[in-house]
Amino acid sequence: MKHGQISSKELSDFIRERVTIEETYSRSMSKLAKSASNFSQLGTFAPIWDVFKVSTEKLASCHMELVRKLQELIKEVQKYVDEQAKAHKKTKEEVASTLEAVQNIQSVSQALQKSKENYNSKTLEQERMRKEGATQRDLDKTGVKVKKATEVYKSFVEKYATTKTEFEQKMAETAQKFQDIEESHILHMKEIIQSYSCSVEDTHKQIEELHQEFVNNMENTSVESLIQKLAESKGTGKERPGKRKHNNSLLIHLNLYDSEEEDERRKFHVEIKPVQPNNGTHQHKATIDELKASIASSIIPTTPLGAATIVPPPRPSSRPKLGAGKLSGINEIGRPFSPPKVTNSSPPPAAPLARAESSSSLSSNTSLSASNTPTVGTSRGPSPVTLASQDALPIAVAFTESVNAYFKGADPSKCIVKITGDMTLSFPSGIIKIFTSSPSPAVLSFKLKNTSKLEQILPNQHLLHSDSSQSDTNTRDFWLNMPALTAYLRKNSEQNPTSSYYNVDVLKYQVCSNGIQSTPLNLAVYWKCGPTTTDLRVDYRYNPEAMQPHGPLSSVQVLVPVNGGVTNMQSIPNAIWNADQNKSLWKLNDISEKSENEGSGSLRAKFELSDGPSIPATLAVQFFNEGSTLSGVDMELVGSGYRLSLNKKRFASGRYMADC
């Protein structure tokens, strides 16, 4: 226990030292950002210093935010140190009787050893006198001494047995208390370290986003733009002085760019005729109008985009509507249980999220890869149906969440919970033709709702952009990089040309958890291990408040390892015993509010053993839900041009375990 107090204080000192380092670094970054303001503001390079200044200020803020979080964590550690000292003091008082038992057995052991030596000495003396032919009187005196030594020895043997039993009982109870204290200490320390790790991890992610923002800003700052800024700040006008006196025409070459790194540049030749001196202001205005008309007649709309480097698009103020003509090439699959008939007057069918029958990209294991590249799913539904005329393109969305939980005994405060989720968009294959044939397809924007319940959000940096300056903490706006999305979908259609739909992972997130209240199925396990039998009870309780909306838990399975050489098992309800793996398995019906006892119940089993006792093991639970999420997060399309044909939600158990 003393070592536990020492480690708690040392952990507090370690975090405090990290705070000092982060604070020093943050102040140094702030000082560096201020120095950027003092650098030369002359020349074409001047705007770059503004980029450096803003980026460095944000970096300093990130580290100062980490300082704040770690300072709060130090307060929690110090609070735990104080509580730990009180608990240890109480434990010392509780185990005082054990110290007395230790002293008793030491005293009795010494007395027993002396009585044994006295008994052996008197017995040997009696035997010696018999062999030497001592008188009967002397033998009688010795016999009395042997008898007395025998009685004393016997009494100490009996007293030692009683003292030993009490000693072993007290020691077992005390050792269990010490073990419980150490287990609780280790779990608490791990929770502190997890909070520390999450704070540092969040800072690293923010720094990574800042670096990416810096890179994007530098990529978007072209040579032409820097020259243009200098020209605008130093220039005296856009017309060359005295040119109107010449009769010769001035030929202007205009270069247009759809991105900065476009492969092909289109050159336009505009001839401006000289101004006639007698026509005055009216003639000057007419010449400008002719210039505008000449440029307009020479450019936009049917020429497709060239192969361009993907750069983050600006956030759209509103989404333009698509043309009302027939959208050829867009196919949509009807629901398997109700194939619709599409007519010009009836609404188009809903698009189910594309997935394979057994290995959907929306399974509980779905996550963004290390490079944040999208995954592709293939549809195995019925034959596609061609859409009628409409002005909105169908997409589908799926939210898939995984809940990981660890329950310790029947103490809800020891429950550890982590919930993660993924958001996936699905696009019909025909939409690729619309994207590639349009020089500027409508930007797909959406609002993520109920984000206040999310601890962190990790967008796919290659495809998704967001506004981090929003004041509403319960929503967050995102929009897709349409050139990047088009490139990905085109590449995936080339790799899987027969697919009707393509799934793209756009973001993943971690949900703020509230301990056991965030778990959809509460657990408590009890073991009673004897030399020949083991009794097991698992209590469970359905918690509908953990999900939105309330929904049943399906395919619930409870797997419990039992060692000790199980020869027979009796269980309520019936379980399956696997002798090869030494595990019992319960398969339960759907658990919901409509179940017996509103979803609460117990699993009981008695195991007969050949090599007991058993050692209590960690049990595992599996389940899933269709139609609900644990976070309550949702998505809403913003603007026009697209419609949501399906919003699919589900969650499943990850590492869901319980211990005694």
Automatic annotation (TrEMBL):
Residues 306-385 are annotated as: Disordered. Residues 392-660 form the MHD domain. Residues 352-374 have a biased composition (Low complexity). Residues 63-132 form a coiled coil. It is found in: Membrane, Clathrin-coated pit. Pfam families: GMIP-like_FCH, muHD. One of its GO terms (cellular component) is plasma membrane. Keywords: Coated pit, Coiled coil, Endocytosis, Membrane, Phosphoprotein. SUPFAM superfamilies: BAR/IMD domain-like. InterPro entries: AH/BAR_dom_sf, F_BAR_dom, FCH_dom, GMIP/FCHO2-like_FCH, MHD, Muniscin_C. Its main location: membrane. This is FCH and mu domain containing endocytic adaptor 2.
